[in-house]
Amino acid sequence: MPNTSCLALPGVTSELQVMALDLAGVAASAGSACSSGKLQPSHVLRAMGADATTAGSAIRISLGWRSTADDVDRFLEAWCALAARSGAVGSLTAA
After folding, report:
1. Are the C-beta atoms of 83 and 5 separated by less than 8 Å?
2. Could you read off the pLDDT of 9-19 as tens digits, one per residue?
3. Per residue in 18-74, pLDDT tens?
4. How many CA atoms lie within 13 A of 50 on its CB side?
5. Is the separation of the CB atoms in 8 and 50 below 8 Å?
6. How far apart are CA 73 and CA 26, in angstroms?
7. Strand residues in the chain grouped as ranges (E)
8. For the purposes of burial, counting CB atoms within 10 Å of the CB of 32, is it exposed (0-12), middle (13-18) or buried (19 or more)?
9. Which of 31, 32, 69, 83 has its CA 20 to 30 A from that of 15?
């Protein structure tokens, strides 16, 4: 889907990322859509070749009809700040 991205921040669990983004006013989901509500890494991401660490640090971000450039900027600011705090800046990956 062109409006949805799966991103991983190795070393920072998807749950921690979702909580940090929520505090910044950004809605995100952990893992892939087929793993929503589960605590273990997505079996789909694993089947696609993602290792357990990457799959366990994956979040899903989607844009909607009413999303704006400011929404994207707010996400990037919050996610990059989390990456900087965690020391993971050099290891940002697309899952």
Report:
1. no
2. 988 999 999 99
3. 999 999 999 999 855 554 555 667 777 878 888 888 888 899 999 999 999 999 999
4. 24
5. yes
6. 10
7. 4-8, 29-30, 58-62, 93-94
8. buried
9. 69
Look up residue 77 and give its amino acid: E
Q: Confirm whether pTM is higher than 0.85.
A: no
How many CB atoms lie under 10 A from the CB of residue 23?
A: 9
Q: Which residues of 41-54 are buried (b: 16+ CB within 10 A; e: fewer)?
A: bbeebbeeebeeeb
Map tokens 């971000």 to a residue. Answer: 61
Amino acid at 13: T
Per-residue tokens: 32: 């892939």
Q: Which of 27, 34, 48, 84 is catalytic?
A: 34
Q: Could you tell me the two tokens for 47?
A: 């089947």
Residue given tokens 């800046």 in the structure block:
89
* Active-site residue flag, 34: yes
Sheet containing strand 93-94, edge to edge, reads 29-30, 58-62, 4-8, 93-94
Q: Which residue has the tokens 């989901």?
A: 29
pLDDT for the residue 87: 79
